[in-house]
Specification:
There is one protein chain. The chain has about 400 residues and is α/β, with parallel strands linked by helices. Helices cover about 40% and strands about 25% of the residues. The longest helix has 19 residues, at about 15-35. The structure holds NADP nicotinamide-adenine-dinucleotide phosphate (NAP). The site of NADP nicotinamide-adenine-dinucleotide phosphate (NAP) has 20 residues, from helix 5.
């Protein structure tokens, strides 16, 4: 059993089988506990299942890991015919992305918003009136809510780790906004908490659940472009630089690299299915103390060079180009997506479509529910940590402050 221990998971992090098993049993036990009054006689089969869950939770951690692994392998060997259960969501924060997530959660069959926590009761109430569920005063109160199964952490970057860890310790799964944390070490401590508590933690890179992005990655990795030589990825927008916006606060790990550069780094690493061997980065420091725009280069092995640009005070550019010796893919908007991209090959331009009627944050919520049920998350622990390590390096190279 030693070869499957958590150190190995941390190293390669591809499927986190231990956590998957723990998660499934914890989730099953909690659901059964909610469904039935403990004073009532349970049907014999349910009693056995509840008992199994209890036994599992009282085992020591190495014993739990072994069972988790066995459970995970059994699930996967059966072809992962996953039964997603309805998830009761709680949202931390009521800002811009919380509003989008709450609105699109209504388009899922797997999730219901039951509560939203805000620093101010009136804000929480107004959010609840618009999106449903209850308005809860404060983030701690949301985590105390027994009805909440999964928390969507939409707080500023600098608050991700604190509230994700508290949520998992309160027995909630966590979908945490990108970038996962202020730095890679902090992100690792969050995944350690996920492993310790048996809860699911996934970084909310929603664009990776888009069918077009999945198809693009599969095509490049399947050799559609021959040998990949150049990747050019961009994500910039222009809006007023307000001191009140956490994006402009160094203490909240704001800045263009963290806000949108993280997508370019993530997509490039996903296409390459590897980590860069070298990086270089320059950034412009805004008077508020964070990078408002930046440009970087990543080298993968000996063959592929990837450039990216990002910015928060620069006209929109959301394009990505991936060029090999046998063709090029151009995608206008991989981040929110119109569902198509073009393949330029053999002198012809072909539009590749992978449209979906489901909006992106709904796709993400569905993918999260599947991961709670045992599927491999669309962004794994190792993917998140790889991205965070690159972001740490780029910020260091560009002279951008990295909060401890
Ligand atoms: N995946 C995506 O598409 C996407 C898009 C945009 C942003 N994001 C990420 O989502 C997170 C939030 O971004 P956002 O644009 O939604 O930000 P936002 O509009 O400023 O909302 C953040 C919320 O966090 C709470 N908060 C607690 N302490 C705060 C502080 N010191 N300063 C500001 N807000 C504070 C506030 O909620 P209460 O007042 O209710 O407590 C606020 O409404 C960031 O991590 C960002 O990178 C993701």
């Amino acid at each position: 059993m030693m070869v499957f221990n958590s150190a190995r998971n941390r190293e390669y992090g591809n499927a986190a089988p231990v956590s998957v098993g723990v998660r499934a049993i914890v989730s099953l036990t909690r659901r059964l506990a909610k469904l039935f009054d403990p004073q009532e006689a349970l049907p014999p089969l349910l009693k056995k299942l509840t008992g199994l869950g209890f036994l599992f939770l009282t085992m020591n951690s190495s014993c739990r890991s072994s069972c988790g692994l066995a459970f995970s392998i059994a699930t996967r060997q059966k072809g992962t015919n996953l039964m997603t259960q309805p998830l009761n969501w709680g949202i931390l924060g009521t800002g811009m992305i919380a509003r989008k997530f709450a609105a699109e959660l209504k388009d899922t069959s797997s999730g219901t918003l039951v509560a939203s926590g805000s620093r101010r009761q009136e804000t929480a109430d107004a959010f609840a009136a618009e999106h449903g569920g209850r308005g809860v005063p404060g983030y701690a109160a949301l985590l105390d809510d027994p009805e909440v199964d999964a928390v969507y952490n939409s707080l500023p970057n600098g608050l991700h780790a604190e509230w994700a860890i508290k949520a998992m310790e309160a027995g909630k799964h966590v979908l945490c906004e990108k970038p996962m944390a202020c730095n890679a070490a902090e992100a690792e401590s969050m995944f350690d908490a996920a492993e310790r508590t048996g809860q699911l933690l996934v970084e909310a890179f929603m664009y990776r659940t888009l069918p077009a992005v999945k198809t693009l990655i599969e095509m490049v990795q399947g050799g559609a472009l021959g040998q990949v030589k150049l990747i050019r990825s961009n994500f910039s927008f222009a809006r007023e630089a307000l001191v009140s916006d956490a994006r402009y606060q160094a203490s909240q790990a704001g800045g263009g690299l963290m806000d949108v550069g993280c997508y370019c780094v993530n997509l490039t690493r996903a296409v390459m299915a590897s980590e860069p061997t070298d990086t270089a980065c320059f950034a412009h420091l805004h008077e508020h103390g964070v990078d408002d725009y930046a440009a970087g280069v990543m080298r993968f092995g000996d063959n592929t060079l990837a450039t990216f640009t990002c910015g928060m005070t620069v006209a929109n550019n959301w394009t990505t180009y991936i060029a090999g010796d046998d063709g090029e893919i151009a995608i206008n908007d991989p981040w929110l997506g119109d569902g198509t991209f073009t393949l330029n090959k053999d002198g012809e331009t072909q539009t590749v479509g992978a449209k979906t009627d489901t909006p992106v944050y709904a796709l993400e919520a569905e993918a999260f529910a599947e991961a709670v049920a045992g599927a491999t998350p669309w962004i794994t622990r190792e993917d998140t940590l790889g991205n965070m390590r690159v972001l740490d390096k780029l910020r260091e190279q560009a002279g951008v402050p990295v909060p401890d």
